[in-house]
């Protein structure tokens, strides 16, 4: 399995509303430190996406960020990241 596919699997399986310490432990146990660090960095970058306006305007900015920096993310991984962003914006 490639690093990108492992990162996708981690987001697909372990990210729902937010990335908890428990979920990070599960990712580390299954994929190791390198993938865990990448997942955590991508998640943090997405959640901290620099937007100061409503969610309707913020989602296209987040999608553009994911498209430009992480075009290899699977649809499910992207969806889980976007859902977490929405939940963290409430």
Structure, described:
The protein is mainly alpha-helical. The chain has helices at residues 3-14, 21-31, 33-47, 55-69, 75-89. The chain has one domain (3-85). Helix content is 76%, strand content 0%. It is globular and about 35 Å long. The relative contact order is 0.19. The mean pLDDT is 91.
Quickly describe the structure.
By secondary structure, the protein is an all-alpha fold. The chain contains 5 helices and no strands.
Defining traits:
globular, single chain, about 0% strand, mainly alpha, 5 helices, about 75% helix
Question: How are the elements arranged and paired?
Answer:
Layout: H1 3-14, H2 21-31, H3 33-47, H4 55-69, H5 75-89
Helix pairs in contact: 1-2, 1-3, 1-5, 2-3, 4-5
Order of helices and strands: HHHHH
Percent of residues in helices: over 70%
Number of domains: 1
Structural class: mainly alpha
Q: The biggest beta sheet, please?
A: none
Q: Give the overall average pLDDT.
A: 91
How much is the radius of gyration in Å?
13 Å
Low-confidence parts, pLDDT < 50 over ≥5 residues?
Answer: none
Determine the strand fraction and express it as a percent band: under 5%
Give the overall shape.
Answer: globular
